[in-house]
Amino acid sequence: MAEPEAPDKLPRGAERMLREVGEKQRRIEKARAGGDTFWSSLSVLGVVGWSVTLPTLAGVVAGVWLDRRFPTRFSWALTLLFAGLITGCVNAWLHIGGRRK
């Protein structure tokens, strides 16, 4: 019959897992203790703002170029403005959601 393992001996790989969990716990505690400062909140606001603004402006510029190059019954500028806005909002949503993790 196989002998049971000693209680003080951990299975293989358990030590590495305990180190990783301990490191993650220290990072979580450090983040909670630091809190959000004014400047970190302002930087997040700036990143989110630009992540919406840039795709929207790129859509407008591309749309105006398409309207001048290929005139159609509908407005490429308006269509790509909304496409850029939606893309920017999704980008901002993912950025904020990723920051919470």
Short description:
This protein is mainly alpha-helical and 101 residues long. 77% of the residues lie in helices and 0% in strands. The protein has helices at 14-34, 38-69, 76-100.
Task: Give a written overview of the molecule.
There is one protein chain. This protein is mainly alpha-helical and 101 residues long. It has a domain at 38-100. Helix content is 77%, strand content 0%. It contains three helices and no strands. Helix 2 runs antiparallel to helix 3. It is elongated and about 75 Å long. 9% of the residues are buried. The mean pLDDT is 84.
Roughly what percent helix? Answer: over 70%
Characterize the overall form: elongated
- Determine the strand fraction and express it as a percent band: under 5%
Q: Care to count the β-strands?
A: 0
The profile of the biggest β sheet is:
none
Mean of pLDDT:
84
